[in-house]
Amino acid sequence: MELRHHPRLTEPVRRTLVDVYSDVRAPLLHLPNYAVTAFAERLAQHGSEPGFEAVIGYDAGRPIGYAYGNTIESGDRWWARLSRPMPGEITAHPTLALKEIGVRSRWRGTGAARRIHDELLAGRSEVQVALMVNPAAGDGKVVALYRAWGYEPFNEVPPTSEAPPLIAMIRPIPA
Fold first, then answer.
1. Is the dihedral of CA 28, 31, 34, 38 positive or negative?
2. Residues 107 and 141: beta-carbon distance below 8 Å
3. How confident is the model at residue 88 (pLDDT cuts 50, 70, 90)?
4. 50, 69, 85, 131: most buried, per Cβ within 10 A?
5. What DSSP character marks residue 99?
6. In 10 A of CB 164, how many CB atoms?
7. If we measure between CA atoms, which residue out of 99, 97, 104 comes closest to residue 25?
8. C-alpha–C-alpha distance, residues 70 and 41, integer Å
9. Does pLDDT of 136 surpass 80?
10. What angle do CA 19, 25, 30 make, to 5 degrees?
């Protein structure tokens, strides 16, 4: 698998991410929060935020998966979404917010998602990485996978009219 870093959301990168997302999330696209248009809007917002970076994995030139995120600091709206206020010792550190990760079904269970994830974290200046995940995703298997990767739950995100309740998870980024 070839891994490519993209520090800017150019039009070709945006198209690739939307295309892979459409395939990865195909069973959920009928839900408002998972619709391609909703993802494209979130992606445009995320791509304009500080520290944005995407890593896309390719097999024989075909994009098979991606992960992207950006830097969040104390006071970022990401922290404000959480149910409970966060102590300063967590929010004081620049954090990589992992916004999305997905791998086409044929490459699931092959380690591709972990390789893409780890490549996104490699070389980042932040000391920790945080994400939000639907605890029902994969009947709990997604949370279990993140736990196996070293993430620990630390807060909740209340549901919205478009999104289910989420769990916020965090782990250090090795130096």
1. positive
2. no
3. confident
4. 69
5. E
6. 13
7. 104
8. 16
9. yes
10. 105
